[in-house]
Fold:
Amino acid sequence: MRTVTHWIGGKPFGDASSPSGTWGPVTDPATGEVTTRVALAGAEEAGAAVAAAKAAYATWRTSPLTRRIAILFRYRALLDARRDDIAALITAEQGKVHADALAEVGRGLEIVELACGLGMALKGDTSTEVSSRVDVASIRQPLGVVVGVSPFNFPAMISMWMFPMAIACGNTFIHKPSSKAPSASILLAELAAEAGVPDGVLNILHGDEVAVNALLDHPDVAAVSFVGSTPVARHVYGRASASGKRVQALGGAKNHMLVLPDADLDAAADAAVAAAYGSAGQRCMAISVVVAVGAAGDALVSRITERAAKIKIGPGSDPASEMGPLVTRAHRDEVADYVAGAAAQGADVVLDGRGFTVEGLENGHWMGMSLLDKVRTDSDAYRNEIFGPVLCVVRAETYEEAVEIVNGCPYGNASAIFTRDGAAARRFQLEVETGMVGVNVPMPVPAGYHSFGGWKDSAFGDHRMYGSEAVHFYTRGKVITSLWPDPAETVTGVPASR
Ligand code: NAD
Structure:
């Protein structure tokens, strides 16, 4: 069995022992076997991580921007060279297929590239002669020790949304990854050290809520970036902001795809299948509800059924697999329960994935594609985030009714519309209450130089992830007003005109 321990001050912490004495199991989702034990931090390890980050901040905050950027360029090259290794660790612990894991690393790299160009974003503004000989400069400075807490479903990408921008801005960072998939974060930290990130600037603390709460309560932590489920996002936002920390907390999702009858239904079905079942539905940008308007309904359901049945499910390490297992047995069983209860709550169960298994790997966390049609909006399958390969279809008579359904959902992460009608698409963009919108694009994950974040119960706090919003989140503004008198004109040093 492998052991994964914390990374503090530029090296493994605890010499393969867990100072708190607590370990958690990491399972290979394809076999169901525990392959690794991960150290779970208590207050002592959290304190050590904060102390290391605080000590490093003293010099990192004033290190030249050119140096920080040179390190990030080296880091980008090392990550690029090790894409396969990072992806393999993701597949082994999270379960997603290798191609999907590689795509995850690619999306994370986008943010490292963004951080490489941070010089432009960090330059301030100056106004000269706002009054006689008075200049005003606005600058942005780092916050200090920043914490990032991330979920299991993107073990590399979500931490790469956070720490490259945070450290490029001059902060030091403690990443608390999900203990279900902890190994990729250690490789990311090792490569950062190889690229020249000084000891203590990037630290990895493994653990569960004990570790998170110790960081949220620590007086030397200035800010917290969180991504995970809505109940935990709400908790993190409340607890950290109560002690005066800056917080951004992204939560869960229930993303709707509205399909109008004039849409290209083949393209819409392809998109729905890829966005609902890709990564076994364990994506915050997954489409979990299709709202089919009028005549689109029956035609779409038959096309989705035909396509979904062809998806090849198997271990993520097998290049022939298009969809892998779910992360844990418990999560797989929760997902299956929603399908089990759907018919009694009024849905037509068109595809039922509960019986699926892979020969020879019967202990893996397998679940086939499930498709629930005519789902009621008061049913459990509609109201809750299922986070598995279960697609709900809700029927609506008109565009107006469909938008009302989307906007009635408490989650507001992303939505999409499929149509050939530009006016309807434009109306949807303006009327829908989600933070990200796709037009004939099912998963509108914004490019790195824009920003990522939802509305309503999908995000707490004012700042979105990456893009220029990350610069605002990871720095604070300062405005300097200066007066330099001309000694030739005054005796006292204060110009006579003032
Ligand atoms: P989770 O909320 O269970 O865990 C997220 C992180 O919080 C983990 O590091 C975990 O160790 C920690 N944690 C768990 N319980 C805690 C508690 N009570 N107190 C403090 N910390 C706690 O989420 P998950 O199951 O790992 O990930 C799936 C969820 O993440 C889904 O809801 C998904 O929609 C969401 N997600 C959202 C986005 C987004 O950008 N909005 C992106 C990816 C995933």
Remarks:
- Residues 2-251+458-480 form a domain with the Aldehyde Dehydrogenase; Chain A, domain 1 fold (CATH 3.40.605.10).
